[in-house]
Amino acid sequence: MNTNLKNIIAAVIAITILTSCEAVKNSNKTQRGAVLGTAAGAILGGIIGNNVKGKNSALGAVIGGVVGGVAGGVIGKQMDKQAQKIESEIPGAEVTRVGEGVNIVFDENSGVYFATNKSDINTKSKTNLNKLAGIFKEYPDTNIIVEGHTDSTGDDTYNMTLSQKRANAVTNYLVSQGISKSRLTTYAHGETLPKYDNTTPQGRAKNRRVELGVVANEKMKQDAKKQVKQ
Known about the structure:
This protein is 57% helix and 15% strand.
């Protein structure tokens, strides 16, 4: 049994013990969420976050940046609002609330399009990125991770360079729309982190994607902690 599996089993046992405690049973829903969120988040978030963060992924940054407890719940509510707005204004985007952040995926069928072997942002992509930039401005206390991905077609080195160009194109466009560069971190993964089967045309199309992670910045974290203390 590997170490990660042992840790996950330990986490499940710990959560089971917590749910059986009288103090937890007699608490309200918010209090239970804070207690269990802290316990589960500290263990599972650490396990998953460390593994994924090792690849500098947007999802890893979202999972690994957990505050936990009641303060984490405060941050989560703000992220809920932001995620809902992105979903309503950019229907093609795949928006997932994860932990205390938001994961956003645009593949070539759903929001940010690139011609084959190109990194130029076309008119339709600009429309969606304009909407996204507007939402980011409404929530200034967040940082944004931008990732570029490709399918497995072509040379590894070429794909890594292409994914970097595409991620940079998205980052630079968001900056041109008024998003502070200090909020943005850009990564390229080439073909190394596929989400779908690269042996099918449909899978390759979905793997040619730009992925974004939205996480609380230090100000949002500190404000949430202060709010809890009041």
